[in-house]
Amino acid sequence: TTLIAIFSFRLIELPFWKGWLSQFAPHKVIFASLVVMALVTKKENSLSNNEQSPVQVVDVSSQWRSDLPVIYTLGCDKSYKDARVLPCIFGRHDAKKTVVLLGDSIGAQWFSIFPNQ
């Protein structure tokens, strides 16, 4: 990363800041940059359109909606449907150790690591 930063500073920033490229008006530099970006984007699109493999569109919205910790499916948290938070008790009552998981949605992410769910 440091090498890239040095390269970028010496070959890109300095010429625009104090070098020979600093004499150009900002609007011309911005316009030239936009033209270069448009040409690169057009070239990239034409390369990807020439490929024979079909483009697959994946609907990830249904995936992230169902990608919840298992604790949300157990009725402990009614989310927006109810203001009550009900305790969920798992495992044996005579176990040697007790774990209390108290938290928000970040805490719920840790639920799956505890045994005897």
Provide an overview of this structure.
By secondary structure, this protein is mainly α. It is 44% helix and 0% strand. It has helices at residues 2-17, 26-49, 61-66, 105-109. The model has no long low-confidence stretch (mean pLDDT 77).
Tell me the helix content. Answer: 40-55%
Summed up, the helix count is 4
- Name the helix and strand elements from N-terminus to C-terminus, one letter apiece: HHHH
Low-confidence stretches: none
Structural class: mainly alpha
Per DSSP E runs of 2 or more residues, the count of β-strands stands at 0
| Mean pLDDT metric | 77
Q: In angstroms, what separates the terminal alpha carbons?
A: 44 Å
Biggest pleated-sheet summary:
none
The radius of gyration over CA amounts to: 28 Å
Q: How would you describe the shape?
A: elongated
Beta-strand portion reads under 5%
Q: What attributes does this structure have?
A:
0% strand, mainly alpha, 117 residues, elongated
